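TL;DR need structure tokens for one chain.
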Amino acid sequence: MKRYFFIIWILSLWNAPFAFGLTADEIIEEVRKKPFPISGKSVVVLKVFKDDHVSINNISFITKRSKDFTSGKMLVSVTRPSRLKILIHVKENSHTNQWVKLSSGKVKRIIGIHKLQSFIHSHFSIGGLKPSENIILSWKTEYNKYFKAKNLGIVNMLGYECYKIEARPKEINLVKEINIEYDRMEVFLRVSDYFPVRSNFYVEGKLIKYMENHKIKMVGKYPTPFKVIMFIPDSDEKSEIHVKSIKYDIKLFNKKFSKEALR
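>> reply
TL;DR here they are.
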């Protein structure tokens, strides 16, 4: 038995792709088995660092997903620096619909907003407003159809032993078809629970941004990062989400996500 564990330890030091006998598909299948919240409510502070300036936004989110995870709705309330509400309806592999209540009280509909559009001038996208989950949730619904993946071995990332998984579209034309802007992604999943601690995003072979999850705590049965940072390489630009409070699987009626909710 001791000899067996010694061999496993040596394999992990070599970062062997077959470490622990799991392929990328098997690891992703384990991810797909994990529980995911259907709804949630959170209060966060969004900090955006650009051009030697820091903008701070106080925001509350109310979110609800369909049971098959192919669509979702979100009501965003910004209270600082200005007051506005944003209602977002997202569908898998599709543009989004968005309604905005301006500080004047007027409600404006914006049709066909891409889910990768920047959210409040930050480095996060509309489709990735739950940054700890966006990559993993896409695997839950789309992986087998659109992506191929490799297990690049076990590495240390942010102090955790992690599987390094590389994902690419099966065909390059799928990048446009499924509304993603990246032709390669690397995700670092903790060996202990498959939770992502870092994601790298590439376009034409160049790393254009990377995201890290920090201060990970259990909230009910869900591991949750209370600090998420999106970095821009070779730049001082970044965006940070600081979670102040969060609740999962709360009862939410659909009328919460209707246009009337903006009034």
